[in-house]
Specification:
The chain has 13 helices and nine strands. With 308 residues, the chain is α/β, with parallel strands linked by helices. Strands 4-3-5-6-7-8-9 form a seven-stranded mixed β-sheet, with helices on both faces. The longest helix is centred in the last third of the chain and has 28 residues.
């Protein structure tokens, strides 16, 4: 935990998240500051930041304040986290971790703005899945250990997002062992499954995350439109989609792949393409692109070269 009463609080796994390892007498005996409790400052109370903040609060951790550029966002954040609005021009209060949940292109700017005011904070992390930990370099020069905690989960709003974090995998990046273990235990405290991600691989990891979520939605949006034009409710596909997803994680994507492209059925695929051209011609390019990607996965590119 952050310093209190002049006694430094240091991370220790032997007694959970945090414990007093000071050589001198323990001056702060408040029950809420012992054991598995961490204090955090949230910068950027948007969907991702508040999802994590609410989950941390429900797990027993404490918000030491919220910083936001928009007054309405600050008000919402303080209401949800039962804490105070902080002033950008004041020194930050004592806390274990400063969480920067701002836009990727604003991380370095915000880190620089807070660097001179964060002397009472031990750790600083951002929630970006793409940006290097080096974007927090300004805070590192002020003595904070820097890293990143990225939940591999969709966070549509604070209520659903905080609930979705339980069971979600969370990427942890930190050079210092103390911070890495702190973040791993913090993730576990809200039901997360932490894993170590090398800073050099963050961009590739983020591309994979987009493919596993956004691109799936794009495929489903295409399917929804085609179903609707065929007079079939999109909901009819739900059991199929659920089974395919389950098979992909049980058997691996290649093992789960079935259908005409996987078995090399050129006639069936030609018929599908003709139907799309007839009923949804504006979607032909997208449908062909998905079909070509599927053929690459199946190893049947040569079989379908002439029609795709």
């Amino acid at each position: 935990m952050a310093s209190s009463g002049g006694v430094p609080r240091t991370y220790s796994r032997r007694s959970g998240l945090l414990s007093n390892l000071a050589s001198g007498p323990v001056l702060d005996r408040r029950p809420e500051l012992r054991g598995n409790v961490a204090t955090f400052i949230l910068v950027g109370p948007g969907r991702a930041g508040l999802s994590l903040g609410v989950a941390l609060q429900r797990a027993g951790h404490q918000a030491a304040g919220v910083l936001a550029r928009r007054p309405e966002a600050a008000s919402d954040g303080t209401r949800r986290l039962q804490t105070d609005v902080l002033d950008w021009d004041d020194d930050l209060p004592s806390a274990d971790v400063l969480i920067l949940a701002v836009r990727d292109d604003a991380i370095a700017e915000v880190a620089g703005r807070l660097a001179a005011r964060a002397g009472a904070v031990r750790f600083a992390v951002h929630l970006s899945g793409l940006k290097s930990v080096d974007t927090l370099a300004a805070l590192s020069t002020s003595g904070l250990q820097i890293g990143s905690l990225h939940p591999l989960q969709t966070l549509p709003n604070p209520e659903d997002g905080s609930a979705a974090l339980s069971g979600a995998w969370m990427a942890v990046t930190a050079d210092r062992l103390e911070l890495r273990e702190f973040l791993e235990d913090l993730a576990r405290s809200i039901g997360g499954r932490p894993f170590v991600l090398a800073d050099a691989h963050r961009d590739l990891y983020h591309a994979a995350a987009a493919a596993s979520s956004n691109y799936v939605i794009a495929a489903l949006a295409l399917a929804e439109e085609l179903f609707q034009r065929a007079g079939v409710p999109f909901a009819a596909a739900r059991p199929l989609v659920a089974a395919v997803t389950d098979n992909a994680f049980r058997l691996g994507p290649l093992g789960a792949l079935t259908g005409p492209i996987a078995r090399g059925d050129v006639g069936t695929v030609r018929g599908q393409l003709a139907a799309v051209v007839r009923w949804a011609p504006e979607m032909e390019d997208d449908y062909r692109a998905f079909a070509r990607a599927t053929a690459r996965v199946a190893g049947t590119e040569a079989t379908f070269q002439e029609i795709l």
